[in-house]
Amino acid sequence: MAKDLVEFRNLKTHFHTSAGTVKAVDDVSFTIREGETLCVVGESGCGKSVTAMSLMRLLEVPPVGGEILFEGKDLLQMNKRDISMIRGNEIAMIFQEPMSSLNPVLTIGEQIVEPIMLHQLVTRKEARTRAIELINLVGIPRAEKIYDSYPHELSGGMRQRIMIAIALSCNPKLIVADEPTTALDVTIQAQILDLMRDIKKKFNTSIMLITHDLGVVAEMADYVVVMYAGKVIEEAPVIELFQNPKHPYTKGLLKAKPVINQKQDRLYSIPGQVPNPIELGNNCHFHDRCEFCMKICTEKEPPLGLDPDGHKVACWLYEEEGKQK
Are 206 and 284 found together in one domain? Predict the structure, then answer.
């Protein structure tokens, strides 16, 4: 069995506003293993990106509780110098929008070379050679010309490939990809996902992929974590989750996905709205949208229980029926 690479333990990332405390990530725990692609799924505002930003230590306001262990070391306790030696080197991130992530006044080559020079302690000539190799690796032709180009001269798909090249520049153990295909058309999306799958296979790199697209999850994931209103509500291996979803929210997400060759007048949508993150009580946060809501759901928060198949779900339906220990 693969070793644990990253372990989130009871992570809490809260933001204090004039209206109250926003519990963006509230008591989240899960594990990423070596060589595994873990997908974090959920609606906008559920805490997916804040979880990733907490891992990368990119938030001005640090998490208020919990641990993020990377190879046994708590990233949240590291000083700025130590975390800067891990960020971009052992853990790299691919952001959602490459045009705003790349510096418009620096050439592509300069932006790939920078982390190589910082972390690999090589000469500029060696870093340039490595950068051109990476541009070729991510499938962009005319690498030497692209090296001297600026971001605005590249298409969206090419810019995203450059972001992947920058992430790969120091051979990281983990790549965090925050919805890396959202801004791209369907054909380019497929190419980027194929590229990420090839990279994982070639370098045995772990991937934490954040997405709301269940088609991407089915294609990429080994293991899936479903988040809702700042909490993990279900997690399981990808085949188990698709074949046997347990939480009513997960069932709703899968039911809302269009099916080829199945004619529908209107796609299913989960009723109701995501709750206000400032007004969350000590209950199941999905209770007012759930067709199976019971009295206990409005009074008490369900624990994330584990069944014999390794499937975790936070739902009183299973606790009440005695299906979990």
Answer: yes
